[in-house]
# Entry
Amino acid sequence: MEETSVVKVGLKYCGGCNPTFDRVAFVKDLTASFDFVVQWVSFEDENISCLLTVNGCEIACVDPKEFESKGLRVFSISSDEPGIKEKFSSFILGGSRHD
Amino acid sequence: MIKTKKDYIMSLKEQKHIVYYKGKRVEDITQHPAFIPHINAAAKTYELALQPEHEDLMIARSHLTGEKINRFTYIHQSRDDLVKKVQMMRLLSHETGSCFQRCVGFDGLNSLYSTTFEIDEKYGTQYHQRLTDYVKHVQQSNVMVVGGMTDPKGDRSKRPSQQSDPDLFVHVVERRQDGIIVTGAKAHQTGAANSHEIVVMPTVALTEEDKDYAVAFASPLNAKGVLLIFGRQTNEERKFERGIDIGNLEFGLVGGEALVIFDRVFVPWDHVFMCGEYDFAQAFVERFAALHRQNYGGCKGGLADIMVGACALASEYQGTSKASHIRDKLAEMMHLAETIYCCSVACSAMGHKMRAGNYEPDTLLANSTKYNVTKNMYEIARLGHDIAGGIIATMPFEDDLRSPEVGKYVEKYLKGVEGVPTEDRIRILRLIENMTGGTALAESMHGAGSPQAQKVMYGRMGNIEYKKKLAEKFAGIRKTGSS
# Structure
């Protein structure tokens, strides 16, 4: 049986001043789906190579470029669009950035 | 260091400051119903800072120590910081539905930061270093600091030094080798009863005769000679009730205000940030006012969001939500709310760097923000009353709803549309009633200064000569002597 390796992913939210969807509930659902392959940690954890940024609206106060410039792979969410789990899955497996 | 709500409440229990409520001393404000909603609201400034989903707004990195700190203790370092402050205000309103009280001290520290720097430049004093040390203490301890701005003022036609009672403005009564003795009072002090320390600042422009009134300092609220008398609010007695009739069940509706008395209070020199430099009082007041008026589109805008939601629900519960005039009124309410938010963001985005290195919002736009708030919040309340209906003024008590004798009639005759419990309709209408009541509106009018204080700024900063030149140019008017 193949052993699944666990990826450490940092989580960075915007401040949530006027969100257009329930960021916390959405992320809770998403993270629960990937618990078997992802160890969720703070965005300030020094041993991460991937980051999930969560913005509450399209203004997207958390700018992924800020983290990409530090060499991190970033997956960004700014809405509760359908199909996000599949996209995040391919991101974790080495796929492309999403925003 | 105060981190959690529990820490905050414990610190209030331990400080043993003197607070009077309705003629009696309150031994423990954390157990007293008149104070609990305000404590709960202020505690949110601590709680949200610990939540990853709000950290981006609630936490900043100190330019003094490099440490992560609560944003309410921060000195703004960019325009982006000023915008984040406004966003934080809106967020906290969404979380409390009330006033969270911690902004006045925040604004006091920021306005003193730039002013002390410039006083030192002119007079070679040491105020800025003292203030910087004090800010570090606030950042490291995370204490809640109330901003002591408004003096009682007595006869408004007279200057501080002309008052028949010299104590109607806080002033220095004695200068000693180790510090100063001050006497006077600060009125309408939002959050004072549940703060730890106070930063006292001058409240008006001053002349040489008023030199003793040009004083800024920090003091613990449990210092000898400091006494607080808590103010009565509209529907004050509802705070002693439980349940629906309170409106906002946990946080109250506005911040709790107090009259803070200083009866010969000693302040050591290291906590004195201005003492006699009357020529800086006006600049200081304008800076503080700009920083404080900047907030109002954020915090009141956030409260207006709740009002819009409450009115939308009320119309759904009552079967009026599809009426075009209701939809139009809800759109108007949102327009008024977003307008004040726009103003706060604009004055932040147009903020400027001070000589001390910190950033402050555009003064005129910050005043425009607050002036709009004095109008828009009343109009939002008016539209809210219109949508909700007269029922907000005539509803029975919750006890009637629960009564074995008459509850069935309240249930029956206050029913709205099918599928919505009568109790839900009562709850939302009670929220609207409480959020649009007396003290909540008066706070929008006079908090951060009355509307006339904002309007005079157009005379001072409206750049009317430039505007006249623009008009002359397009009208083809040439001044005598010009070619």
User: Anything to note?
Assistant: The mean pLDDT of chain A is 87. Chain A has three helices and four strands. The radius of gyration of chain A is 13 Å. The interface with chain B takes residues 11-18, 23-24, 42, 54, 61-62 of chain A (CB under 8 Å).
